[in-house]
Specification:
Order of helices and strands: HHHHHHHHHHHHHHHHHHEHEEEEE
Strand content: 5-15%
Number of domains: 2
Helix content: 55-70%
Structural class: alpha/beta
Strand order of the largest sheet: 3-2-1-4-6-5
Shape: globular
Low-confidence stretches: 3-10, 243-249, 265-272, 482-488
Mean pLDDT: 80
Length: 498
């Protein structure tokens, strides 16, 4: 079992005033930062799907959830949250804020128990200034809670190694169940963590501890069994119909991504925070390997590094096996990576100038994001699009043919009374469209659209490297919301008529 080596890494069980103050201030800071994203007027396809899904009664919603490609927990809790506080877009986005409150709780309390106050403060700073607060919380989807629950699984798995007490196993088991019912990447991640814990026990001959992990695993398996059939069906559906290119990646790119994703940004903020963090982390790892006598428990760091490497490797195998592109999902692993970075940088690179420079870089990155979001607060490109198309026509007379599911969801949100069509060429993962309030009709071959109308708009999501076969009159709408994500929320809309 891993034990402490000095007082700075002691398992202090007592809350201090400084901890509580740090937690409250960091939560207020993240809320202030988050409010700019909260009030953004634009919406993404993923958000429209969840937005419409939770508006169905519970019995209808439960039949529609398996048609998506996510577990049910997030949608069910979001529905309950909306029933209490309303269904407006800012309220639904506000729900994601609590996932970051959870991340800050982990950094301020359990991390301090494991590694001491200095690591806790720096880890809190990294979590609080992450660009994830802007990019992914605007989406009304479960990924942010997967980020929180997966990080909690890692931290409490280490606590079971340090402090072999039933309470830690119960909390670990609880967060594991929450993780696997929130996101399928978290399912892979949790499986990887338990595998690493058991292998670690076998190497160290802690056989009694293996029984405890197996009991936790049994509880998780039994609780997950009812959803397993749905998981298999969703996996087949996604494997058959995922519209994007296959992910061309490897474990090295994955490792870079776990640092880049939390601090990827527009303008030059990414260069400051992301690159500096990667470089400093690399130096810290080298020092950790070379220095035998350190103030931190080496076995803790080796355990965390193993969790990063092995879980990413297993994730990569799953991605390659099912041919599912998911580069944005790497950030779910970044909570662990940033924790390790906080430990190594704080304890091994003790120069104040380095810590101050990194902290300043993170805060500058965060400030740039705030400024960008503030400028975009009233820049509603989609509302402009609505004005353009309803200026000379009634919304009920508008007809849209969708090339891809992005426009299908977003246009159903902004043009609920228009007529919406898809074809056999439409790229979409979901096969059931009754989640949307509009009546979406499949015309079969795209040329059959002429049997339904003589005048329509063909909506193409704009990808920078794509070929567009159509020529003629079109309008281009560039949504400023798209923060260097894997996809843009921009559209080319062709006007076709006989």
């Amino acid at each position: 079992m891993i034990t402490k080596t000095n007082e700075s890494c002691g398992l202090s069980k007592h809350l201090t005033v400084r901890q509580i103050v740090l937690f409250v201030i960091s939560c207020l800071f993240v809320f202030f930062v988050y409010i700019f994203a909260l009030l953004n007027n634009n919406i993404t396809y993923d958000s429209t799907y969840e937005y419409f899904l939770i508006r169905h009664p519970f019995n209808e919603m439960w039949t529609l959830i398996p048609e998506d490609y996510s577990p049910p927990l997030y949608s069910v809790i979001l529905k309950l949250f909306a029933e209490l506080f309303g269904y407006s877009l800012p309220v639904l986005r506000l729900f994601s804020y609590f996932s970051f409150v959870g991340m800050l709780y982990l950094a301020v309390f359990p991390v301090k128990r494991l590694f001491g106050e200095k690591v806790s403060v720096f880890c809190t700073l990294l979590y609080a200034t992450s660009t994830v607060n802007y990019v992914y919380t605007v989406d009304i989807r479960p990924a942010t809670f997967a980020y929180f629950f997966s990080t909690a699984v890692v931290i409490y798995s280490l606590l079971t190694k340090v402090e072999d007490k039933p309470r830690n196993y119960v909390i670990l088991c609880l967060f594991s169940v929450l993780a696997v019912y929130t996101h399928y990447v978290s399912l892979v991640f949790a499986f990887s963590i338990y595998l690493i814990c058991i292998v670690d026990c076998l190497i160290k001959k802690h056989y009694k501890q293996i029984i405890r992990y197996l009991l936790c695993g049994a509880v998780i398996a039994i609780s997950y069994a009812p959803w397993l059939i749905v998981l298999i069906r969703q996996t087949k559906n996604v494997h058959s119909h995922f519209w994007a290119d296959e992910l061309n990646s490897n474990i090295i790119i994955g490792l870079i991504n776990v640092f880049v994703k939390p601090f990827s940004s527009f303008d030059w903020g990414y260069c400051i925070a992301g690159n500096l963090l990667i470089i400093t982390f690399a130096i810290a790892v080298i020092l950790f390997v070379l220095k035998k006598n350190t103030n931190i428990e080496r076995s803790k760091i080796i355990f965390l590094l193993s969790e990063i490497f092995i879980s990413l490797l297993i994730f990569q195998i799953v991605v390659d096996s099912f041919k599912i592109p998911a580069p944005r999902y790497y950030y779910i692993f970044s909570g662990t990576a940033l924790l390790v970075a906080a430990v190594l940088i704080t304890e091994l690179i003790r120069k104040r100038i380095v810590i101050i420079s990194l902290s300043a870089a993170c805060l500058i990155n965060c400030s740039l994001n705030c400024i960008h979001m503030y400028k975009l607060r009233d820049d509603n490109v989609y509302q402009l699009m609505v004005s353009d198309y309803t200026a000379n026509a009634n919304e009920e007379d508008l007809v849209f043919l969708h090339y891809q599911e992005f426009s299908m969801g977003i246009f159903s949100y902004y043009f609920p009374n228009a007529k919406h069509y898809i074809s056999d060429e439409t790229a979409t993962v979901i096969r059931e469209f009754s989640v949307f309030p509009t009546n979406i009709t499949n015309v079969g071959d795209s040329n059959n659209i002429w049997k339904y109308t003589d005048d329509f708009y063909y909506a193409y999501p704009y990808f920078h490297d794509a070929d567009y076969p159509l020529t003629g009159e079109y309008r281009f709408y560039e949504c400023p919301y798209a923060f260097e994500c894997e996809y843009d929320a921009d559209f080319l809309i062709y006007h076709l008529s006989k």
